[in-house]
Amino acid sequence: MSAHQQLDFSYFPGCSMATTAAESNTSMMKAAKILDLNLIELEDWNCCGSSSAQTLCKNLSLGMAARNLSLAPPGRPLVAMCPRCLHYLRHAQACLRKDPEIHRDLEERWGRPIPLDLEIIHFLEVLVRYAPDRLKKSVKRGLKGLKFVPYYGCTVFRPPDLGQEKCYEGEMENILRVLGAEPIVGAYTHRCCGSFLSATDPELVTPLVNEIVDSAVLAEAHCLVTACAMCQLNLEIRCNSLVRLPVFHFSEVLALALGAEDYEGWFIRHLVDPRPLLQKLALVA
Amino acid sequence: MMNPSLPEEENDVPMPVIKPGERDRSLAEEVRKRSGTNFNRCFQCRSCGNGCPFVQAMDYPPNVLLRLLQYGQDQTVLESKTIWVCAGCHTCSSQCPMAIDMAGIMDILRLIAVERGVAIAKPNILDFHEEVLRSLERYGRAHKLGIMWRYKLQTRRWFSDMDTGLKMLAKRKLELRPSRVKAIKEIEDLFKCYWREAK
What is this model's ipTM? Predict the structure, then answer.
């Protein structure tokens, strides 16, 4: 059916994509399949270490992330969807480049090479760099009429020690505009969602999340689209504003625009049901 | 000192007692080395504090914390809420006109606070991180239901936030069974560096 050549990538899901944000994972896989991007899950991957390992032990944090790098077969880029996982994986690679001794120790410990030139990229970047033509040719349903706030969260393009790495600001708008949606400016797009404080200090996070969602309401957006699974969760579970907006994973609106039909399974997992909005815009039946 | 031209309610940062005679720059020196950031470039413009989404839950804004660090007020710094409330969103670092990586400094300060065993001002946050690590040690991946369960057990805040947990369960966002890394020995080995000695 498709005229595209299949492109292979290694894929690191991470704990959120595998569990709380399974709907993001499913819809991303669906979109990738339509675009002939073959995401091959890393065999026996482990948690990237997250902010908890980063807080309590730098060696542990480095080791957790580096083990995943040792599992990546050479010759194809490693793709992550979770911005924090991406950050820790890249951070580990940068550390190993600087410290050949630790690099050699870890390689010997696991008996596997850890390639220092492995390309580690976000799924958004895969689309922009490898699939812009496919994207245009594969639009089926489109997203006409959907006004969205691109909510990047705090991590996708910011941490300074990755300053030389690619910056993703604007890419979500570019992609979704191609698919027919209309980006809305003037709302909070990369203010922190509260991260783990949502679990430990919810009373602190709720007003911040409300400010983010309220800013989107004021800007007259229909919804927010996030590039981060944890942001999506926090924006949904911690918002108690009077007017609440649906919060989509980026992958969901992407797959929807490309004609995916299994969206019911994703949307029932949302706390704010996005289906009435999509029905109103006649995007779904 | 805070800016005297500001209205009083914006000046409600608690004033720590600074004893100049007892200045000891060892912590400042250690932080500078381990974070690779020279924070002596700070001229107290307060961009970091103004941009921080969590500053109202901190006892000292980030710029004041830096000043305390420069004045050798090690204990005040390490026992502050500020370092734990920081979620590492890097807003401060990206806004600093002097390119000081404030978030990187916070990161190192948390680490030193744990290493030195000082009183932790937000013990619930440390408990949470430790529960995450227990899950990672056991399974190699984060099992969120287990983490929240043991976190509640630890902090005894059983009924706070119950409705959110139930909603997440109803939406099947919390997996009942953990998924486990097959080569779990490789994960266990990584934990020898910190975990074993501490317990």
Answer: 0.90
